Here is the input.
Amino acid sequence: MYDFKGKTALVTGAARGIGRAIALELARGGASLALNDVNEAAAKEAVELAEKEGAPKAKFYKFDVADSAACNAAIDSVLTDFGGLHILVNNAGISIDALVMRFKDEDWKKTLDINLTGAFNLMRAATRPMMKQRSGAIVNIASVVGETGNAGQAAYSASKGALIALTKTVARELASRSIRVNAVAPGFIDTPMTQALPEAAKAKLAEAIPLARLGTAQDIADCVAWLASDKASYVTGGVIRVNGGMYM
Ligand code: NAI
Here is the structure.
């Protein structure tokens, strides 16, 4: 259990899956929570759960992370509503898969806009208040395929690889202000995003994982909570692999 009392965290894509697990883990440590998503119904449920788990305050902010004006406005609202922003978790992401020769322009653009530009938009907007308070922790959710590549995932793997490079760049820019920026690279995690796969495909994938099971959203949340906490105060520019040994 970490101590996030007095801290406010903004988690994107927090309605379900990994984002929801991250939000609830931060809530257990006593963080106040600004929860973003485009899925209003599921996000409202996440807000209620966050309050039950110990968040002194939790509020839903509906916006598309790909919309830079909406991201700027959301950061302003969070500062007004909570009085500060100490932790930013860029988790919102989508995956549109096709072989490169068949990839549609709009699918390429949409994936990059949400997975990469979304994180950029919010980091840019959060930098000013974090620099003023001379502290902050940013965690970006990348992916194992951002390091390995994956056939059929041109846009997704490119977005995650670029997110890793962006993480390292912003970490270098902000280190002198005691703002830490890290990435978590999950392997194959059991969430609504991956539940759509056929059982046989999931079983085959699990066989290729040395720890011989799919990861859980909680496995990722535990790592994110550590990175966001003062226990990781000497960790920045890191890419922490939480993948059961899938890629070493
Ligand atoms: P998910 O699909 O279950 O949840 C993603 C959430 O993001 C949804 O609630 C969705 O409504 C929200 N979202 C989508 N587009 C948005 C937008 N434009 N603005 C705001 N919110 C938006 O996915 P999951 O599995 O929980 O993934 C979370 C993150 O973890 C993603 O960045 C994903 O790429 C990454 N990841 C997931 C892995 C897995 O195996 N599930 C593996 C590696 C990385």
Notes: The chain is about 50% helix and 15% strand. The two ends are 27 Å apart (CA to CA). Residues 12-13, 15-19, 36-39, 64-66, 91-94, 114, 141, 143, 186, 188-189, 191-194 surround NAI (CB under 6 Å).
